[in-house]
Amino acid sequence: MGSHALAQQGGDATTAGFEYIFPAIRGVQAGREYYVSMCPLRLIPKIFLFDEDELAPEVRAQRVLNKGRVPALARYILENPDDYVFSALTASVDGAMRFVGVADQGPGLRVGQLHIPMASRFLINDGQHRRAAIEVALKENPSLGDETIAVVFFHDASLERSQQMFADLNRHAVRPARSIGVLYDHRDELSQLTRLLALKCPVFRNFVEMESSTLSARSRKLFTLSALYSAMSALLQGLKLPSGKDGERLSWGYWEAIDALIPDWGEVRRRSLSASEIRKQYLHTHGIALHAIGLLGNTLLRDSLDPEEWKPRLAPLRDVDWSRTNPDWEGRAIIGGRVSKNHQNVVLTVNYLRKQLGLELTADEQQAEDAYQRGER
């Protein structure tokens, strides 16, 4: 940051003649100059604006801030102060920018200082949730203010240009598959446990798609890592386990018990049946079934963690008709011939399994079941 005082940023009258000075690198895209700089985190909430929520979409340059995302992003910074990673912010500057290179020729032409009048308006085109999270994190840990984030500055030619920049920046943004997110997440204990089961547990080893969250028709895999993660989350939610090893032992034992009650899984491992045919004909390898089986196990494990008590209670699962042609699944797990994994379908599927095991439904589950029985699907 330059030598001019930040105290002068109150308004046009008080900021006239004052400017921000950023160390920067100059580049060119589509014939337009842009600049890349490092900005202290403490300045991010002060100088970068966000369109007000009450503005109509056609006169905003950004989408409405999803405030629900901000606490998780802020917590990510606060809980990982030594290894958090934030990508660059992209901002438009409504004001004259002046770049002064360190030399008149050669590489020095591209490296220098970017001068921006304090009266200018800074508008974030990409990174508004990161900006909001930084503001929240700084309130709890002001020492983060000395750290920096990369900022890409463009000249703000017009609202239309800013809107087009937002559209272009997000046009080709593709969220990574959830499976690869689980595969690469080394902070989340549940992700680590799910990976362990996928790679080492005999039930899943060599039959879990580790990268994609969908399976192609010819895939030799039975499950996706993301589906297994959801099932593990359902299985262990709310359980108090003394250590990570206990969670590993418990979940490993649970899925081996389930495996013994679904012989088709073993037939695929023994190459007697193909994975693609099993997925096509049966429901038990799909995410909705794994999730429901996880929820079912959670109910049993809340009563007792002793395998001698919960394993026998699972026995009726052996008699469940998992074939997709079973009319009982229509409207529960299958809608119009296609497997559906929305929340309501998960609830109705676990309801069916609870009935097989003679377990009571919760009030919410009973309400969903009553609506299903009335034909309100």
UniProtKB/TrEMBL annotation:
InterPro entries the UniProt entry points to: DGQHR-contain_dom (IPR017601), DNA_S_mod_DndB (IPR017642)
CDD domains: dndB
NCBIfam families the UniProt entry points to: DGQHR, DNA_S_dndB
Name by which UniProt lists this protein: DNA sulfur modification protein DndB
Annotated organism of origin: Nonomuraea phyllanthi
Gene this protein is translated from: dndB
